[in-house]
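seq as requested:
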Amino acid sequence: MSASFLKTFYIFLLLSLLTPGINFTFNNSSEIGEPKCTETERKALLTFKQSLVYDFVMLSTWTNHLNNTDCCKWKRIQCNHQTGHVHLLDLHGNYPYTPYLRGAINVTSLINLPYIQHLNLSRNYFAMSYIPEFLSSITNLRYLDLSHSYFAGWIPSTLGNLLQLHYLDLGQKKELENASIELSLIYSKVSYKAMKHGIYSKSKLSYGMYKQG
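struct tokens:
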């Protein structure tokens, strides 16, 4: 048997043994390469959490531990699988039963979550605080539910700047003032913008009505 044949045989054998290892490495690289939430958005969520009193179970995964830095894996959050940006935040409670959030909501930190499309803060207890006008800065919002969370005062007309909004529920009891008038203005404003941009069919707004009493 010639030396060149043996050399070729051993090279072929070596490549056969190494191939599974090479594939395994590529597979792992693919998993490692999946997008994670950005540092800015992770910090924004932790800042938002600090402003609230909450049931431990509700936000138990929202931590700053070294092995838990990917907020896309936290409970009540969904991220875009391609970009890693947070696009859904579902923090609905079950007030008066647990779990639910309490306190005066500090929504300014959510400005650093500009890609959110779905925000649900319903059935919590926000201590008769005002609905934050900063919500109108989250311009990608398509779904907003603040119902039965003990907000008080006027409904900010700036919510009418949310052109992408498809669903709005602000249903409370008697806490919000001039509710029906403000809702009509918001609805008209969003509808007018939608028609102006030729996307009325995509921006039809549904909203929760108020029950006085």
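The two ends are 98 Å apart (CA to CA).
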